[in-house]
Write a structure and sequence with these properties.
The complex is a heterodimer. Chain A is α/β, with parallel strands linked by helices. Helix content of chain A is 33%, strand content 21%. A six-stranded mixed beta sheet of chain A has the order 6-7-8-3-9-10, sandwiched between helices. A six-stranded mixed beta sheet of chain A has the order 15-16-17-13-18-19. The C terminus of chain A is likely disordered. The chains are: A alpha/beta, B mainly alpha.
Chain lengths: 557, 342
């Protein structure tokens, strides 16, 4: 499977976290060759982060737990080296750049590790310069970390890891919190490090469409089953279709060989095979109903800075409106303002018949479901059952509906468990149950798919369809372009200072450079998803059996 | 590398140490007011971003102050100025409620508020990463522990805000003490989770470098014994035993110096990308702090004392002490100096 000398070797590794019911890794064997760029994918909880943490010894030195087997990193056994010693050969970049900095300015952050290892000052200066150049952060060198965008912070984190001149880079979902442009910047830097310096890269990533074009090898973890490991073409042909990026899914459906991994590959295949998509779909008309959310000339901001100016829009029952824009353009602030958690500077809001300028958040919360970025923060009662019951009571709904609600979100068996004991996926389901308890007519969601695996995302898309059909008005802040293309009826694009575009999903996303989907980049016009492209090419498609359908995620034979 | 306001973190630590002496050692209202005024003036001189976001801590200090007054009033039955006499038959509250107890409670509250203000001023100005760089190699563990502790409180506050917001958006409210108590496990787990993330990051960035060379058991005992001796010194000082305090203090400092010197022999010597440069303005802050401490030592502990029991009397005002404590305004002078130079 691997070419060249193995840089990393997992030998029969088993690991169980302290107090966990089951082992997250069982007799795991793996070899990664020098200079390979490997992507790890798989469901949440399948062990991606654990594998990465084994590389620099955070597992088991920091995590505790039961560890068996051994991990060799460039021939050295991680069991006998502390993390701080492994830092010389393994650079580690965490998921959330905001929570992972030790200094206040960019230069100091990059130099920190070098100072710890006692690198002489002249050499240190050279390495800091190199790290700044390699990651394109030179112009940020004097800036305070607080003033950087998410993408910039993540590139600084990358520079800080690189300054130690590691031969191996481990990246734990480095783009999950970034907007598409920020993600591209970070991944471009990673690709150059791999190609030009030969650094071995192991990256956990959920959004394969962002990384698959630069990947040498893809491993999809499937606990309790055989992992898929090999060249992306080979793995993407065999994996659950919901995991495949749109270009690969199109290639699978059209039986193209080799499988396209990038938009460029797919475009060539389209030309070569004279592939014609069905007629370009258009946005459906808006429902003729009274809006559930009306925002009129809204201005909000922080102490010195105005984030939104003169923003006006409405959301009607049965619509799912996506709020998109770069990091820091005020998506979360707008949602918090609608909930009454952030002050209105000027303008008018009506949400479910209430006005956040006058009505208390508690009153709004009784009519509006809200899913914050960290969904688990919604859970603070002793048990999940208590949490959902309290949510029903606060919305004046019949507590008899508790069992049905728990069943709906597959939580019945967890009803007596503490929210703190649940996995990330279970916590997300429980938070959704709380947000939707008592059937609120409006639902606000703040990046609900952040760090979510493709299969759970597909389930969420299915839920959105149900909620739209039930007439719920939804407003969702997100960076996930492919998800928006599948589920949103309208898009509001935020830029510096306010709304820069709004309209039907196709109207806004089609032709967008930053927020375009893979299918749109290939076919243009109103084609956004694999579904759009194939719709009228296979007339009996809608009558296909449920096994042949991909819920909300395109379709496959 | 430099801390907020461009003053060396070591100078800030000396300033905070000097400012803490009075609220920890005495209740003389003039001395307390002098320190409080100096600290407020220093806060006022800081850039706005360093002052923002701490109002809730100040409010918490005020709440503790109010509790201190109420607690004294309702529990202390001493003093010559009676406000009202409650029949002895009333459980707990029965007896004379006195002005003396209110005054003592007020002074306790003032001391708490001063301590809180010193703490938040230090938090706002201290660059923790610069402090980490100052730590000797052998105190790596302490550095990791310190960074966990340093990030624990703000992280817990962030978790608290998140939960209170989440409760509001669920249409629920925190009503009684039971609701607040119910938050404890969440706050602790949230704070610990985030603090552990910080320590993982430090290790991943090579903090501590290679492990220090093996040392004898005696050397290993030095840090703990040094800290213990310093605690004894502080206690001696508080008890008015100045000679013993000075002896214990000197011994403690000596042991800590031995610890630092011993750490110099470790396999990896850390280097600094940008050295801390001790500037004239740092001397101003240090000198102010030393003058304040010197005045406290010279005027003696009695000048800091004030007892409103059993007879309420006007407190003594010591002009030299007040002037000495106002030397804690050093950072204000330093900040103005730097601004003028710029």
């Amino acid at each position: 499977m691997t070419a060249g000398v193995p840089d990393i070797r997992f030998e029969d590794v088993s690991f169980r976290y302290p107090n966990a019911d089951r082992a997250v890794l069982r007799e795991f064997d793996w070899e990664i060759a020098e200079s390979e760029l490997v992507v790890l994918a798989g469901e949440s909880g399948s062990g991606k982060s654990t594998i990465l943490r084994c590389l620099n010894g955070l597992v088991p030195h920091f995590s505790g737990g039961e560890f068996g087997g051994r991990v060799l990193v460039r021939g050295e056994d991680t069991r006998f080296l502390p993390t701080r010693a492994l830092a010389r050969s393994v650079g580690f970049v965490f998921q959330d750049p905001g929570a992972h900095s030790v200094s206040t300015t960019v230069e100091d952050e990059i130099a920190f590790g070098l100072e710890q290892l006692g690198v002489p000052v002249p050499a240190m200066r050279r390495r800091v310069e190199e790290a700044l150049d390699l990651t394109g952060t030179e112009r940020l060198r004097k800036r305070s970390l607080d003033t950087l965008s998410g993408g910039e912070r993540q590139r600084v984190a990358l520079a800080a890891a690189l300054a130690l001149q590691p031969r191996i880079l481990a990246l734990d979902e480095p783009t999950s919190q970034l907007d598409p442009a920020g993600a591209e910047d970070v991944l471009d830097a990673v690709r150059r490090l791999n190609e030009e310096l030969g650094i071995t890269v192991i990256m956990a990533e959920q959004r394969l469409e962002r990384v698959i074009g630069m990947t040498d090898r893809l491993r999809i973890l499937q606990p309790g089953w055989h992992d898929l490991d090999g060249h992306p073409d080979e793995v993407l042909r065999r994996c659950d279709p919901r995991l495949a990026p749109p270009v690969a899914l199109l290639g699978r459906t059209a039986s193209w060989s080799p499988l396209p991994l990038t938009v460029k590959d797919a475009r060539q295949m389209v030309r070569k095979t004279v592939f014609e998509p069905g007629p370009a779909p258009v946005d459906p008309p808006r429902p003729e109903t009274e809006p559930a959310i009306v925002v009129d000339r809204l201005a909000v901001g922080y102490q010195r800075e105005r984030v939104l100016e003169s923003a006006s829009f409405d959301v009607r029952p049965g619509e799912l409106v996506a709020l998109m824009g770069r990091n820091g353009t005020g998506k979360s602030t707008l949602l918090r303002t609608l909930m009454g958690l952030h002050a209105v500077d000027s303008g008018r809001i009506a949400i479910a018949g209430l006005d956040p300028s006058h009505d208390r958040t508690q009153a709004i919360g009784r009519r509006v479901g809200f899913l914050p970025q960290r969904a688990s923060s919604l859970l603070f009662h002793e048990t999940i059952g208590d949490d959902v019951r309290a949510a029903l009571e606060s919305r004046g709904a019949a507590v008899e509906g508790l069992d049905a609600l728990l069943d709906r979100f597959a939580l019945a068996h967890l009803s007596d468990r503490s929210p703190l004991d649940l996995s990330a996926g279970e916590q997300e389901r429980a938070a959704l149950a709380v947000a939707l308890a008592g059937h609120p007519p409006v639902l606000l969601l703040d990046e609900p798919t952040r760090g979510m695996d493709a299969i759970r995302k597909a389930e969420l898309a299915e839920l959105f369809e149900e909620l739209r059909a039930a007439g719920i008005a939804m407003l969702m802040a997100t960076h996930d372009v492919e998800l928006v293309a599948h589920v949103a009826t309208r898009v509001i694009l935020l830029g510096d200072g306010g709304i820069v575009a709004q309209g039907g999903t196709r109207e806004v996303l089609a032709g967008s450079l930053s927020f375009g989907t893979q299918m749109n980049r290939i076919f243009g016009n109103g084609w956004l998803t694999v579904d759009d492209v194939l719709r009228d090419r296979l007339p009996d498609w809608d009558n296909a059996g449920s096994d042949a359908r991909l819920v909300g995620w395109g379709r496959i034979e | 590398m430099s801390s907020q306001a461009g003053i060396d973190p070591r100078a800030w630590l000396c300033w905070a140490g000097a400012a803490l002496l009075v609220p920890l050692m005495g209740r003389n209202p003039f001395a307390l007011a002098s320190v409080l005024l100096a600290v407020l003036a220093v806060r006022e001189a800081l850039p706005p971003e360093a002052r923002a976001g701490w109002s809730w801590v100040i409010r918490l200090g005020l709440v503790f102050g109010a509790i201190s007054v109420l607690f004294n009033l309702l529990t202390v039955r001493a003093g010559n100025r009676v406000i009202v006499s409650i029949p002895e038959s009333v459980p707990v509250l029965g007896g004379d409620l006195t002005v003396n107890s209110v005054v003592f409670g007020l002074l306790g509250g003032l001391a708490v508020l001063t301590l809180v203000l010193i703490g938040i001023t230090l938090s706002a100005v201290l660059d923790w990463s610069a402090m980490l760089r100052l730590l000797p190699q052998s105190l790596t563990g302490a550095g990791v522990a310190g960074s966990v502790a340093f990030s624990f409180f703000p992280q817990m506050v962030a978790t608290y805000r998140e939960v209170v917001d989440a409760q509001a958006v669920r249409g629920e409210e925190l009503r009684g003490p039971r609701d607040y108590l119910g938050l404890a496990p969440l706050l602790l787990s949230g704070g610990i989770e985030r603090a552990v993330t910080m320590s993982e990051l430090l290790e991943s960035r090579g903090f501590g470098g290679a492990p220090p060379r093996r040392r004898s058991a005696w050397i290993k005992l030095c840090p703990a014994s040094g800290l213990a001796a310093i605690c004894v010194a502080v206690y001696g000082f508080a008890a008015g035993e100045l000679v013993q305090a000075l002896v214990a203090g000197a011994a403690g400092m000596g042991l800590l110096v031995v610890t630092v010197l011993a750490s110099r022999g470790s396999d990896v010597r850390r280097t600094r990308y940008r050295s801390l440069v001790w500037q004239r303005t740092d001397w101003i802050v240090l000198l102010g702090a030393l003058l304040a401490v010197g005045t406290v030592i010279l005027t003696g502990r009695d000048a800091l004392r004030y007892e409103p029991y059993p007879v309420l009397v006007w407190p003594d005002a010591s002009l030299p002490l007040t002037i000495g404590l106002l030397c804690l305004l050093g950072p204000v002078v330093a900040i103005l100096w730097r601004e003028r130079a710029r």
